[in-house]
Write a structure and sequence with these properties.
Helix content: 55-70%
Largest sheet: 2 strands, antiparallel
Radius of gyration: 40 Å
Strand order of the largest sheet: 1-2
Number of strands: 2
Low-confidence stretches: none
CATH architecture of the largest domain: Up-down Bundle
Number of helices: 5
Shape: rod-shaped
Strand content: under 5%
Mean pLDDT: 89
Number of domains: 2
Structural class: mainly alpha
Length: about 270
Amino acid sequence: MASFSVVNNIASANAQANLTITQLGLQRALTRLSSGYRINSSGDDAAGLVTANGYRADVAIINQGIRNANDGLSDLQIKDGALNNVSMLLNRLATLAAQAASGTATQDSRDTLDAEFKDVLEEIDREVTVAGLSDPSGFGFSVFVSANGADGKITDTLGPATTADLLIDGSSLLDQADAETAVNDVKAAIVALGESQSTVGTLQNRLQYAISLAQSQMVNTMGADSRIRDANIAEEAANMTRYSILTQSGVAALAQANQSTSAVLALLR
């Protein structure tokens, strides 16, 4: 049963409560529209925020992994270039040794060929040292390329490529027998160097595949984060319109509720 009272205005209190809820909804819609995010504070979606933050961290790790892989490719390209140059120098050694192994070569010509042979050996050692492939323990290659912990690393070892490691540092062309031995030694060195070149090529291919996979993972992970974190602009625009209309009607209703108590005064006249 309705009653008239000037102490408590229930209609006004109800209108104020509804208007407060409407204002909160309007504020939330405006915040999402202005920021572009559905989650702007932990209270918006606590569970979703935890998941989205995990995706965001994965994206950061994958991005750095792609940069790591590209840095690794650059390093391998330097070493590949050095090994290719060493391969050409080995071909020159093979040519000199074959020329000295001929019975038509004079001792003077063998002395000249041996001097150039020694110079080429020194150049091989110099270039290998510059490329970082002179360490007796080899070159340890390790690149972190994804967010999967230990499984996200690409590792391998390149063997040293000095003339001592290729077993040609003691070769000589001073007589025909030594020259013939040098030919075989250089051929074996070319095969050994080819193994290092093969390892470099394999690592380059693995890194390129890893970069391709990481880029795909990054796109998909960003999509997963976006579906949780980002605001649906069409939905929030509709919410803003709805709450704006409710705010205007709520203010009008509150004004009417505040005026309703004045009707009680008519009873006192």
